Automatic annotation (TrEMBL):
It comes from the Eukaryota. Residues 105-177, 284-346, 370-428 form the CBS domain. Keywords: CBS domain, Repeat. This is CBS domain-containing protein.
Amino acid sequence: MQDRCTLTDACTTESFDWPSRLLLSFAIVVARQRDPRRVAEEIESQQASQSQNRAYREMEESPRSGGMSSPEAKLGLRVEDLWDIQEPQLTPSEKLNSCFESISVTSFPSAPSLQVEIKSDSSLAEAIQELSKHKLLSAPVCNVEAPEDASWIDRYIGIVEFAGIVQWLLEQSEGASVDMTGGGFFENLISSNLYKNTKVKDISGSFRWAPFLALQKSDNFLTMLLLLSKYKMKSLPVVDLGEGKIDNVITQAAVVHMLAECVGLHWFENWGTKKLYQLGLPTMKSGQLIKVCGDEPVLGAFRLLRQRGIGGLPVVESSGKKPIGNISMRDVQFLLTVPEIYKNERSITAKEFLMAVRSYLEKHQGASPMLRGTISCRKDDTVKEVILKLDSEKIQRIYVVNEGGDLEGVITLRDIISKLVHEPRGYFGDFFDGVTPLPPNSRV
């Protein structure tokens, strides 16, 4: 009714000439004869289009997306185009699966540190220094003995991770007659022949991620997302079979950054505006969390990380309820590369370690998530809010707390990705044959 009134009012406006009035009168007659349901559908479609245009404008105006110029934002627009043409009877999850299955992994933005490779004859000390210098958690290991025309599977012996080196060192050192709770242990470790002379190739067989599981350029986004979430891969090399080299390395963090750049797009908002508890997050509740009290030795925290095969754990107050910080396996770099943070300590506790690292970072770096204490969220926060926080803080996990600040669970990058897509029955077929063990809940 509002539309007709507007048209009628326009017809009586003196500024309109007779031809214009005639056309508007004709439009009124046509509008009155149309099916009201059809008119309502068109109005709804126009409103949806206007809403989408507003979302585009928000992205263009957003400082995060750089005026839609970032590769991640442009990739999000490709997903948006595919989302708009999906069959209407599909669920949002099925739509996203279909969209991501239609995009090749070659479209994923290149990793800025792709050129960094660790030579197989590098010592563990040299590998640690190289990873630290480039602020990397992992890098491909290039086989120096491979011929120039070698295929990718012969050219690379795997991916070395900071945590993998540390795990191996701790395993080899457990039988050593040194004080396992004091600074002397770490001083002896970084000055030992074990650390200085052992080659990366000598420990490659101990890596649970080596040989790595690689993607081919013909693989799609859905395969990549499932491997990074359900199948717990931290990073995925994309190999060029013809050239025998790695074209890209896709990490969980890179995927979450891509999602952060897609804020405002319809497909993202449809999923990202859901609250954590609506998606069953956190999956890891407080009672299931591996924790360490602030007054326990920090070496015990790193030992727990290794024994339980986890990437990080919360440091809590003596009550065991309130988190005061986070320790991850990558934080051991401060014990291996910055000995001044502990050399005056007879025994380093988890809390003292956090304080020492924060003090060091304040002097030498100036900005780090560790300087801001525990980064947390609430169960009624949206997925979008958590993604933006994970991406802006460059962290691997975020702790869920209640109104009183007590620990309720943890959400990791993998948890976020796992809620984006689902695995269709029989999707991988024989993809994993002879490569890696399947998770217990696999349906392939």
